[in-house]
Amino acid sequence: MCAALAYYERSVFRPGLGHLLEDLAVVQAGHGDMTGARASFGRAVEVYRSLGADWHIARADVRLRALGIRRAHRGVRDRNKKGWEALTPTELKVALLVAEGRTNPQVAAELLLSPRTVQTPTPKRRATGRVR
User: Fold this and answer.
1) Cα(122)–Cα(124) distance, rounded to whole angstroms?
2) What would the pLDDT profile of 2-49 be if each residue is shown by its tens digit?
3) Alpha helix stretches (DSSP H) within 1-132
4) Contacts 24+ apart (CB under 8 A), 122-131
5) d(CA 61, CA 22)
């Protein structure tokens, strides 16, 4: 497999490199090398992304997830943890409707949510100081 990897790294056939790195991740995960598997999978995803092969990324995600390998979430996670800014758009809608005086069943019906979802205050909503 190492010789094949060296070959494909020099080759212009990038899809082959992506598939080989994905297969390497599967073998590594099967042998308990989860760190190596994550690294190989990450490299495979980079190759697929450079080719615009989103379908291959999605397929590989499913294949490797079955072996306990997941990609890290992409994007910045800098949302506040407290206050109004910490609420999701739906949580904010719930809070505003409750502040208007609507009951939990009314809010649930309007937002097409379960009444249980509306009645359960999340820690974030409690942190705003407006929900008891």
Assistant:
1) 5
2) 787 777 778 778 888 899 999 999 999 999 999 999 999 999 999 999
3) 2-10, 14-30, 34-50, 54-65, 89-99, 104-111, 115-119, 123-127
4) 122/91, 124/81, 124/82, 124/86, 124/87, 124/91, 125/87, 125/91, 125/94, 125/95, 127/81, 127/82, 127/83, 127/86, 128/82, 128/83, 128/84, 128/86, 128/87, 128/95, 130/95, 130/99, 131/95, 131/98
5) 10
Rounded to whole angstroms, the Cα distance separating 54 from 56 reads: 5
Question: For residue 86, what is the DSSP state?
Answer: G
Contact 33, 25 (CB under 8 A): no
Q: What is the pLDDT of residue 28?
A: 93
| Distance in angstroms (rounded) separating the CA atoms of residues 124 and 83 | 7
Instruction: Summarize pLDDT for 46-99 with one digit per residue, the tens.
Output: 999 998 888 899 999 999 999 888 886 655 556 666 777 777 788 888 888 888
